[in-house]
Each structure stands twice: as C-alpha cells, then as structure tokens.
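To whoever is on call:

I kicked off a structure prediction for a single chain this morning and the downstream step that reads the tokens threw a length-mismatch warning. I double-checked the sequence; it's 236 residues and nothing unusual in it as far as I can see. Pasting both halves so you can look.
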Amino acid sequence: MTKFHKTLSVSLLLLILVSCGKDIDTNFTLKGRIKGLKKGVVYLQKEGDSSIIDLDSMVITGEPEFNLKTNLEEPILLYLKLFKNDGEEHYIPFFADKGITEINTSLDNFNFDAEIKGSKQQDLLNEYTKVMSGFNNKNLDLIKANFLAQKDKDSLAIDSLNKASETLVKRKYSYTIQFALNHRDNIIAPYLALYEIPSANPVYVDSVYNGLTEDIKNSFYGKKLREVVMNRNAKE
C-alpha cells in the first residue's frame, strides 16, 4: 500500500468515526419539508446567554426536505430558521424533546403555515397558542374599532373600547396563569410564566412557581423562573 493510500485510508476512517460519533451524540431529530423552497439554508437554533446558537444546518438545493440533528438534555424551546437571502428573518419556534419532531410548512407563509408534530410540550404549546390566537384576533378588532372611534371623536365609544381592551388583557393573563397551574408537571408551566406573563401580579407568578413539581422546578425553565422570583423578592 502506497503512502498516499495509507493516508487516504486513515482519513476515511477518521471521517467514519466522526460521523458515527455525531450520530451517537444526537438524540433529537427535526425533519420536514418547506413547500415551494428550491434553494436556501435551514438552521436549527437555540437561545444562548447573549446570542442565538446554531446547533445544525443544511443547505437545500432542489428538494424541499430537511433533516437536522442535535443532542438534548431536557425539553427546550428551539427554532427552525430559514435563510433565503431576502433581508428578512424567517423562523419557527417549537418545543423539542428527545426523539423526532416534524415541521411541514410553505415558503410563502413560512411561519403561519407551520404544522408541528412531536413532543408533548409542543402539543400543549399548540393548544395554548390556538386560544391565544382567538384573544389576539379580538384585540385586533378592538384596535380597529378604537381607530374608527378616534376618527369620529366618539368619546363614549373610546372609553368603552378601552375598558374592553383592559378586560381582554386580564382574560389573557388569567387563562395563561390557569393553563400553567393545570400543567404544573410540565415544563410548559414555567416557560409561560417567564415569557407570557412577566408583568403579571407577582402573587400569580409565585403561585405558578410554588405549584411546580420538583422535577419541573429543577428544569431549565424552572431554575430561570426561580431566579426571577428570588431576585424580585430580594428587592422588596
């Protein structure tokens, strides 16, 4: 065997070992397709302490299917990002857990057409966001009505719409708090308390944290919620 062939054999062996090692280290797969996409790059990302971290990426040329992998220690919110060189950010947040998650969407409506199947945390997030969409649609109706009332200088209508808007916000907060309390054994509970109701009455945020199971209190989002609660209490 020539020196060249020996070097080539060693290089191929190292490549195989690295590839096998990557498969062993990954316990999560994100797969799916983006209808209409012919060329672009998809990224699997997570939030770092001060920036977004790329976990995996894939260049798409021709076929719209993608397959991304990473290693997860526990359920966490990840992002599927699409880069298509149009100067805009395109990403889909989803809850990932060990195993396989599938996201199917379209190029034209990347965010809105996304159908996500995977973790039980994502199932709960889907349930929650569906209700929130209803609240958000009602809020848009109130904004439109308020604009027309302002245009007509209808003070009575403006006052009524402002009260309706305040009531809607309280209903959204109430639903979120109750949803978190009902799922205190799931990581979705501290996640919602952290990112959906950060300005809610501290009493309610504390009740969410205190109601968490021990496993969830010791999770990534449980620990972050504990920091928020402790820091706030220290200032009081």
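Update from on-call: the warning came from a stale cache, not from the record. Cleared it. Sanity check on the structure: The beta strands are 28-35, 39-47, 52-61, 65-70, 76-83, 90-96, 99-106, 115-117.
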